[in-house]
Amino acid sequence: MYNFSAGPAQLPPEVLMTAKDEFLDWHGCGMSVMEMPFTSDEFNEISTKAYQDLNTLINLPENYHSLFLQGGAYAHFSLLAMNLLGKNPNADYIQTGHWSTRAINEAKRYGHINIAASSEQDGFNHIPAYHQWKLDPNAAYCHITTNETANGVQFQKIPDLDVPLVADVTSDFLTREMDISKFGLLYASAQKNIGPSGLTIVIIRDDLLDQAMDIVPAVFNYSRQAKTRVNTPSTYSVYMAGLMFSWLLKQGGIEKVEQQNSIKVQRLYQAIDNDDFYHCTVNPADRSKANICFELSNPDLSDDFLNDAKENGLLNLKGHGVRGGIRASNYNAMPLEGFDALIDFMQTFSASHAMTSLKKNIA
Ligand SMILES: Cc1ncc(COP(=O)(O)O)c(C=O)c1O
Which atom of ligand 1 is nearest to the CA of 190? Predict the structure, then answer.
């Protein structure tokens, strides 16, 4: 079975096996991780290693903090605005699809939000060219969604801006190398490449830690959380994230998985482009390497495609509700064989339907 879900998504079997083996009794301490006080030495060891491994993986510069918070990226659409718009209410947003639109709608409650560029009129099929962005040089920040999970569009290059760049990296965090120093703040829900949903990673440059509004709840005040642990962390999720980070380090780090991810994705886009039976409407230069969205030329066959795929062990290929069609997610845990199996299936499905329509035409 291969699970192409966009999230919560497939985790590496080795990670799940370790969690299974350690579930009742972590390293002989007589407790499950789920039962440990978060102030215990045992949990402290788990949490410290998780932070260290993450910081190593992303090469975290010294003037940044990484935080393991809760709420999911959707909550942080509001929370980041509350944390960053306390002194200056103006922010730029680049609208590139479903998730950046959600981020804009939430932030609007807390400040003056300028949509500096949008591809909405074109059905979110590309990233607006940088020279067309109408940026406010005095904005508190500019927000982008590096990868639009629902629309299959991705920034291939992270822009260099004069104001702090804030990025929702939920669906491509740890799938490709990112120079953290280009960002003022990054945040990601965990359920794609990190672990259980609910856990949210926030990475913030230290000079942005004093911009919060008074109304921000203490547990979501990035500055307070950077100084000290405010509330009970989502302990089991932090443990799972830690297992994922050490798995990723064992794979050779982000550089290695990025190479693998590129190979998988190139094969799939090639299979789509080489067969008229399928098509991808996203501008080739902006196509996502994490979520490959495409359609069948005859959309009436989409349900048959999805049902047959499931029978062949290819799960969760249905596109996001806002867009429909097919979506194959290419996260770190998806092996090359999964994509090869999908491509084989697509070729067989297309050939069998081409044969059926040929027979109908002859008859
Ligand atoms: C890019 C992006 N941002 C935000 C979210 C929302 O995440 P959550 O539901 O964990 O809050 C998602 C969910 O898939 C996403 O893909």
Answer: 10
Domain containing 97 equals 13-250
Farthest-apart Cα atoms in the chain, separation: 76
How long, in residues, is the chain? 363
Residue 108 annotated in active site: no
Neighbours of 288 (CB within 10 A): 27
The catalytic position among 92, 168, 172, 286 is: 168
Query: What is the pTM assigned to this prediction?
Result: 0.97
Cβ(189) – ligand 1 distance below 6 Å: yes
pLDDT along the chain (363 residues), means of 10: 97 98 98 98 98 98 98 98 98 98 98 98 97 97 98 97 97 98 98 98 98 97 96 98 98 97 96 96 97 96 97 97 94 97 98 75 65
Closest atom of ligand 1 relative to the 77 alpha carbon: 4
Q: Are residues 203 and 60 in the same domain?
A: yes
Q: What is the dihedral of CA 51, 54, 59, 63, to 10 degrees?
A: -40
How many angstroms separate the Cα of 186 from the Cα of each of 80, 83, 166, 256?
Answer: 10, 13, 6, 22
Using a 6 Å cutoff on CB, does residue 100 contact ligand 1?
A: no
- 355 CB neighbour count, 10 Å cutoff: 10
Are both 221 and 263 inside the same structural domain? no
Q: Which atom of ligand 1 is nearest to the CA of 145?
A: 1
In angstroms, the CA 175 to CA 255 distance is 9
Among 55, 54, 60, which Cα is nearest to 240's? 54
Q: Ligand 1: does its nearest atom lie under 6 Å from the Cβ of 151? A: no
Are 158 and 44 members of one domain? yes
- Is 53 in contact with 245 (CB distance < 8 Å)? yes
State the catalytic residue, choosing from 26, 192, 289, 318.
Answer: 192
Q: Which amino acid is at 159?
A: P
